[in-house]
């Protein structure tokens, strides 16, 4: 490996150490429904995001709430002696991508069949901290 490539790889590793994320794969909810909830909490602090997700009637909000708690736990595991209220964490990025699709058939009139697509999604949540205090 060349010197320039090694330096850029080390720089990439250093930047990756400061990223705290959680990922939810193959969630059996359509991406469109999940994006409605994800758009509500994008860019918010974790206190307000948790309260929005807790009291939202949508089923996707329960899954995103659990994912946010996982991302907070990931942050706490790397910053053991820091308090997450003082660090003022916020949702830096939340991405909802479509996952695999289950294709089923439903009977239709006159001997025909209609295809039903049961969609799933992948959610990636990245937390950011305004100031990290030790």
Q: List low-confidence stretches.
A: none
Strand order within the widest sheet? Answer: 1-3-2
Supply Rg. Answer: 20 Å
Beta content comes to 25-35%
Give the helix tally: 4
In whole angstroms, how far apart are the ends? 36 Å
- The helix fraction, in percent, is 40-55%
Listing every helix as H and every strand as E from the N terminus to the C terminus, the arrangement reads HEHHHEE
Secondary-structure arrangement, i.e. CATH architecture: Alpha-Beta Complex
Tell the overall outline: flat
Report the structural category.
Answer: alpha+beta
Major sheet: 3 strands, antiparallel
> Quick one: how many beta strands?
3
Average per-residue pLDDT, rounded, comes to: 90
**Structurally, how many domains make up the residues?**
1
CATH C-level class is Alpha Beta
Stated plainly, the CATH topology is called: Ribosomal Protein L22, Chain A
CATH superfamily label? Ribosomal protein L22/L17
Give a structural overview.
- A 3-stranded antiparallel sheet has the order 1-3-2, with helices on one face.
- The chain has one domain: Ribosomal protein L22/L17 (Ribosomal Protein L22, Chain A), CATH 3.90.470.
- With 134 residues, the protein is α+β, with helices and mostly antiparallel strands.
- The two termini are 36 Å apart.
- Helix 3 runs antiparallel to helix 4.
What is the secondary structure topology, with strand pairs?
Layout: H1 3-17, E1 20-27, H2 31-41, H3 46-55, H4 59-78, E2 89-107, E3 113-129
């Amino acid at each position: 490996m060349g010197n320039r490539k090694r330096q850029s790889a080390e720089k990439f590793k250093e930047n990756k150490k400061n990223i705290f994320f959680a990922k939810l794969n193959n969630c059996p909810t359509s991406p469109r429904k999940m994006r409605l909830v994800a758009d509500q909490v994008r860019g918010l602090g974790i206190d307000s995001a948790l309260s929005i997700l807790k009291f939202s009637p949508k089923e996707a909000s329960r899954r995103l709430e659990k994912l946010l708690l996982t991302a907070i736990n990931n942050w706490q595991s790397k910053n053991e002696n820091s308090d997450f209220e003082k660090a003022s964490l916020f949702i830096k990025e939340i991405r909802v991508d479509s996952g695999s699709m289950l294709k089923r058939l439903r009977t239709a009139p006159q001997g025909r069949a209609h295809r039903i697509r049961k969609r799933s999604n992948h959610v990636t949540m990245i937390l950011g901290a305004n100031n990290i205090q030790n």
